[in-house]
Amino acid sequence: MKTIITKIYKIVFKIISLHFLSAATLDRWIEHKVITYNSAKIKEPLEGYTIAFLTDIHEYPYMRLKHLVSEINQRKVNLVILGGDYSEEHDLKIYMNILSKLKTTDGIYGVEGNHDNYEELKSAMQTFGMGFLDNEGLHIRDNLYIAGIRDLRKHRPNIKMAIKGSKPGDFVLLTAHNPDISMKKDLSGVDLMLSGHTHGGEITFLGLWAPALYFVSDYGQRFREGFSKSKQETDVFVSHGIGKSSSGLFRMFSRPQVIYLKLSNTK
Predict the structure, then answer these.
(1) For residue 30, what is the DSSP state?
(2) Do the beta carbons of residue 262 and residue 39 sit within 8 Å?
(3) Strand-pair partners of 228
(4) What is the pLDDT of residues 177-188, one digit of tens each?
(5) Which string of DSSP letters, residue by residue, matches 185-237?
(6) pTM of the entire predicted model
(7) Which domains does the chain have, with CATH numbers?
(8) What is the dihedral of CA 236, 206, 244, 136, to 10 degrees?
(9) DSSP 182
(10) β 226-229/235-238 pair status
């Protein structure tokens, strides 16, 4: 019996050690993750169109954010979308100034998160030439319509209003900070939704289960990371984001990430 208990203790110790090793190493390095999204609505001129998605910056250190911007610029993206939750305690304009240095062919657009001050964010984004998507959208190129909505927990998100400018045959890309909106509202006019908010669970068990998500999302592990489906079976992609929550000391098997969405035709 003592031998079995000793073996169990050793296994538990190794698992715990593995988690702290991950937190001290891999979970401190941002992953640059490329996702190819196939849709019959992607016309030939949009083949390979690349969108960088950054979300949940949460007081990320200034110098490291500047370095990250330089890394993204080396990839020559077409568009940048910001998913909310930028800064609560520091000067938001400093973050927006750094992010405004991102180089694109078609601009930088973003939405609010549940930790953002609506008026301050809107002002800061507009000051630095970025588009603030406030229950609204626009055509970035022919057949590519992007939209963004207000945060689910703070204001009244209106998907119908945000996508009303789209045309039949458009590929409609919606950004909403909180992925729970996809289970509460109609996404039938949307092709793909991008979200953050859940931080990949932030502290997880081997990257498979995150206990804190039951306090963050009404849908448990459903929107921890990656692709999922809305109530109407619309594709929803959730990024881990970059920073940590205000109460988070570290990430554990939830590596921070920047997503590069590459559009492609299924033909």
Answers:
(1) P
(2) no
(3) 236
(4) 999 999 999 999
(5) S--TT-SEEEE-SSGGGSB-BTTTB-TTHHHH-TTTTTTSSEEEE-TT--EEE
(6) 0.93
(7) 30-264 (3.60.21.10)
(8) 0
(9) H
(10) antiparallel
The answer on pLDDT for 222 being more than 70 is yes
Q: Which two tokens stand for residue 244?
A: 């940590």
For residue 54, the 8-state DSSP code is E
Better-scored residue on pLDDT, 65 or 205: 65
Task: Assess contact for 242 and 60: CB atoms under 8 A.
Answer: yes
113/210 Cα distance (integer angstroms): 21
Measure the CA–CA gap between 200 and 23, rounded to whole angstroms: 14
Place of tokens 């640059």: 32
Q: Distance between CA atoms of 144 and 51, rounded to whole angstroms? A: 12
Closest CA to 234 of 177, 197, 182: 182
> What is the tens place of the pLDDT at every residue in 179-221?
999 999 999 999 999 999 999 988 888 888 899 899 899 999 9
Q: Which residues contact 27 (CB under 8 A, 6 or more apart)?
A: 250, 251, 252, 253, 254, 255, 256
Locate 78 and state its tokens.
């077409």
